[in-house]
């Protein structure tokens, strides 16, 4: 099997591997350690407005609050829906079966959609930490309230929209 196929399936299965401890989201303990940067360089933002703004730790970069919210919404929705419109063409090619750099976007999307399975977790179960970014590129660690596993994702701003553009399993240098 291809490494990218296995990696694309790892996070959804890992997130459903453990049961919930049935605590409301607001009372669960955060699982990440505090950043090592000085307090003036690191901030932690938490609101209860929506799943897209729940406990995202920003550790570096020039991301505005709007960028942070857009990144959070994009990655959460992509993980739950697998929507091709939330990913760059290059990333779709890297996670689609038997695709390469010459594969048309539509074909890569069709291939990705054929292997994507709707996960048993929801956007509320996804935890984002260590969000950092500048110059239209961001990285964020994605974990779960259900399992102690994280994956580093990359997002790129394309024409004003944040799109998933990589993960630590399929993207060199991430």
From TrEMBL:
Biased composition range(s): Low complexity: 29-55
PROSITE patterns: PROKAR_LIPOPROTEIN (PS51257)
Signal peptide: 1-19
Sequence segments annotated as region (Disordered): 21-55
Key words, A-Z: Signal
Protein name listed in UniProt: Nuclear transport factor 2 family protein
Taxonomic source organism: Nocardioides ginsengisoli
